[in-house]
Amino acid sequence: MPTNRRIDVVLLAVAVVWGSSYLTAKTATDALPVPTVLFVRYAVAALACAAVLRRFGGAGGLTRDEKVHGSLLGLTQAAVLVLETYGVAHTSAGNAGLIISLTLVLTPVLDRVGLPGRFFLAAGVCLAGVAVLVSGNGLRAPGVGDLLMLAAAVVRAGHVVLVGRVTAGRALRPLHLTAVQCAVGAALFLLPAVPGLPALNRTGAVTWAQLLYLSLFCGLFAFIAQTWAVQRTSATRAGLLLGTEPVWALLVGTALGGERLTGLSVLGAALIVTGTYWGQSVERAHRGRGTAGARDATPRSGRAGATQAS
User: Fold this and answer.
1) Total-model pTM
2) What DSSP line would sit under the chain, residue for residue?
3) Cα separation, 298 vs 235, whole angstroms
4) pLDDT given for residue 47 in this prediction
5) What is the pLDDT of residue 97?
6) Mean pLDDT, 10 residues at a time, the chain of 310 residues
């Protein structure tokens, strides 16, 4: 499989698990306080990451760059998760998945990429899909949870851009960065989680399964996969593929959460997928032209330098 396709598959896998995380997080926060859910999510991921590092981490420990930049990314990732988790606790899983998709439009704006107008037409198709999904699911007037999800979309777009910026040109290993992020998150939520920790003794198997899924798949796997993929593509392209989250959130909500799949829901999902792949192709072609232009400029500079030297 070509490298670009592998990157796309990985990013889509992240979108799938994150799309399923809204229903999972909502049901988990029905049983446990939000800080407790966040602490367990990070702590389990940190322990799993430490075990993987011991087994596959190779020679050498964490570098200074990995500690510094991993801590920075840990803070922004924790901000995303706290906004998302409190948001989904105060709105529906469907609303959460829809609103967070605004990351798609916010990422290129924050990335300050000079994309052609066709990209924003594609983003508009995605937004039209979100609007159709909203009308299909009867989105109510925005409440506290919806506003928190909107803030989460802004912060997540910034986080995706930041991942691309801090990893560019640096020898940062995704697994090691993720280990630092998870440790930072566990430390941040430890004290707020303390009052709710006794409730874990009364937590049933279903809730524990949800916590493990949030930790290992929506946390450990997604953090590593996102960092690995963004290192190998642009933040804008990553934002496009991750922007398919609401489709997966809708499918999971329909299959497992008892939500009705209407004709408008299907149309909205189709618009989001179409807009995502259209925008991806525009962004890829734009980057390709930029790379070709840089290659063409190199010989000219070299020839000019040779002429001046002679």
Assistant:
1) 0.75
2) --HHHHHHHHHHHHHHHHHHHHHHHHHHHHHS-HHHHHHHHHHHHHHHHHHHHHHH--SS---HHHHHHHHHHHHHHHHHHHHHHHHHHTS-HHHHHHHHTTHHHHHHHHHT----HHHHHHHHHHHHHHHHHHHHHT--S--HHHHHHHHHHHHHHHHHHHHHHHHTTS---HHHHHHHHHHHHHHHHHHHHGGGGGGGGG--HHHHHHHHHHHIIIIIIHHHHHHHHHHHS-HHHHHHHHTTHHHHHHHHHHHHS-----HHHHHHHHHHHHHHHHHHHHHHHHHHHHHHHHHHHHHHHHHHHHHHH-
3) 25
4) 94
5) 78
6) 78 88 89 94 92 75 90 94 91 76 75 77 82 61 78 90 84 85 95 94 93 90 81 73 76 74 77 78 73 51 35
CB 130 within 8 A of CB 265: no
What residues have CB less than 8 Å from 42, skipping those under 6 apart? 78, 182, 185, 186, 188, 189, 215, 219
The two tokens of residue 304 are 């000019």
The string of pLDDT tens digits covering residues 108-160 is 778 766 778 888 888 888 878 777 766 655 554 557 887 898 899 899 889 98
Taking only the tens place, the pLDDT of each residue in 238-273 is: 767 776 777 788 788 777 777 666 787 778 778 877
What dihedral angle (degrees, nearest 10) is formed by the CA atoms of 40, 145, 256, 246? Answer: -100
Q: CB count, 10 Å around CB of 185? A: 25
* Under 8 Å between Cβ of 240 and 22: no
